[in-house]
Write a structure and sequence with these properties.
alpha/beta; Rossmann fold; 7 strands; 3 domains; 7-stranded mixed sheet
C-alpha cells in the first residue's frame, strides 16, 4: 500500500476534480466525478434536458396540482402519456397512494427504532484485508442528539457521503481502497488501530467514556489522524444542546493542556494533494456565519504532525453526500471534495 500511496502523491495535481489544470469540471464530462454519482434516472433526465430542453415550468391553467405538472416527468423521460377515464382510476389511485404512505411511515418508524439505542444491527463491517477503508466513529449521543429523524448524530450522511468520497479518491489516486464499503467503529474497539484515518461527525453531541478516551488517545499517539466534521453553534435552528463547548470539554479530557490552533492555508494539509490557497469563502453548509477550520498538533507544536482537523460551523461531508442530487452548488461541492481528498492523503502520509 505504501508504494501505491507514494505514486498517488506524484499524480498530476488538478484544480478541479476529474479534470486537469485549466479545465472546468463538468458533470456530463467527468468520467467518475459528480456525473457518475448520479442515478441512471438522473442521468437520463439530464440527457433529455440537454437534447430537448427542460420541461416547461409554466403550469398553465391547471395550476400547481393539475395535469400539466403531472406530465412533466413522463415528458422528460420520453414516456407515453395515456389519458384515462377518471371515474375508473380515481379509487385505485387513492388506494395506492394510501398504501404507499403507510408503507413509508412504517419504514421510517422501523429506521427510528433501529437507531434508537445508537446502533443499526444491519450495519455490517467488512473484514480487514489491508486495503484502505473509510472508518466512521460511533458514539453514544448526548441528550438531544437524535434530532434528525430519530437517528443518532454520529450516523448523519452514512454511508453515502463516504462512498462518494471514496469513488472520487479511486478516480484521482492509485490508493488501493474499498470504494463501496466503509466501516463503523467505536473508540474503545481494538479494530480502530487498523485504520490510519478516522472520521467523527456532529461532535456537539459526542459523549466519551473512559475506555473510549483511552482508545482515542492511543490512536492519536500511534500516528492516527482524526477528521472532525459537521457541528454547529449552540441553538442552531432552535435545537437545544450541541455547540463548540461540549466538544472542547471532550478534547481537554482527552489531551490535558491541549492547544487548539486556528488553521490557515499555509498548513501542509491544504497542499497534500490539491493546492488550496485560501480558506476564505469556503463551503458553508448551514448559512450561519463563516466556516471555521481548527487543528490539534502533536505536543502542541505547530511544526509537528497535525493529529486532528476540525471543520466547525460547516458540514463538508454533506456536499459529498448530496453531490449526485443537485442540492448543493457545483463549485462548493468541488471545493468540499478537495478538502476531503487532502485530509485523507495527509492522514496516510503523516
Amino acid at each position: 500500500m505504501t508504494g501505491d500511496l507514494r505514486r498517488a502523491t506524484r499524480y498530476p495535481r488538478r484544480t478541479d476534480l476529474g479534470l486537469h489544470a485549466g479545465t472546468r469540471l463538468d458533470v456530463s464530462a467527468a468520467p467518475v466525478g459528480f456525473g457518475a454519482l448520479q442515478s441512471p434516472g438522473q442521468r437520463e433526465v439530464g440527457r433529455q434536458h440537454r437534447e430537448h430542453g427542460p420541461p416547461p415550468t409554466n403550469l398553465g391553467e391547471h395550476g400547481r396540482h393539475g395535469r400539466t405538472e403531472a406530465s412533466l416527468l413522463p415528458r422528460a423521460l420520453d414516456l407515453p402519456i395515456q389519458e384515462a377515464d377518471d371515474s375508473r382510476v380515481r379509487r385505485p389511485v387513492v388506494l395506492v397512494v394510501v398504501v404507499l404512505a403507510v408503507g413509508l411511515a412504517i419504514t421510517a418508524s422501523a429506521q427510528r427504532r433501529r437507531f434508537f439505542y445508537g446502533w443499526d444491527p444491519s450495519v455490517k463491517n467488512i473484514a480487514y484485508d489491508g486495503r484502505f477503508t473509510f472508518a466512521r466513529v460511533r458514539y453514544t449521543p448526548a441528550p438531544g442528539g437524535h434530532w434528525a429523524g430519530g437517528m443518532p448524530s454520529w450516523v448523519h450522511g452514512y454511508p453515502l457521503a463516504e462512498q462518494n468520497l471514496m469513488r472520487i479518491m479511486k478516480d484521482l489516486s492509485l490508493l488501493d481502497l474499498h470504494p463501496d464499503n466503509s466501516n463503523v467503529v467505536t473508540l474503545d474497539d481494538p479494530e480502530l488501530f487498523r485504520y490510519p484515518v478516522a472520521y467523527i461527525i456532529e461532535v456537539g453531541w459526542w459523549t466519551m467514556s473512559e475506555p473510549e478516551m483511552a482508545g482515542l488517545r492511543a490512536f492519536l499517539g500511534k500516528g492516527g489522524f482524526l477528521i472532525v466534521d459537521d457541528f454547529k453553534p449552540t441553538g442552531w435552528r432552535g435545537i437545544p444542546g450541541a455547540g463548540w463547548e461540549p466538544f472542547e470539554e471532550n478534547l481537554k479530557r482527552l489531551l490535558p493542556g491541549v492547544r487548539i490552533y486556528e488553521m490557515d492555508s499555509e498548513d501542509p494539509i491544504f497542499h497534500s494533494f490539491f493546492d488550496i490557497t485560501t480558506l476564505d469563502n469556503f463551503p458553508q453548509a448551514y448559512n450561519y456565519g463563516k466556516p471555521v477550520f481548527r487543528g490539534v498538533y502533536e505536543d502542541n507544536d505547530r511544526t509537528k504532525r497535525l493529529q486532528i482537523i476540525i471543520n466547525y460551523n460547516t458540514d463538508i461531508s454533506q456536499y459529498w453526500e448530496w453531490s449526485g442530487r443537485g442540492f448543493r452548488p457545483f463549485d462548493d461541492t468541488n471545493e468540499a471534495y478537495k478538502l476531503g481528498v487532502n485530509y485523507l492523503i495527509y492522514g496516510m502520509t503523516h
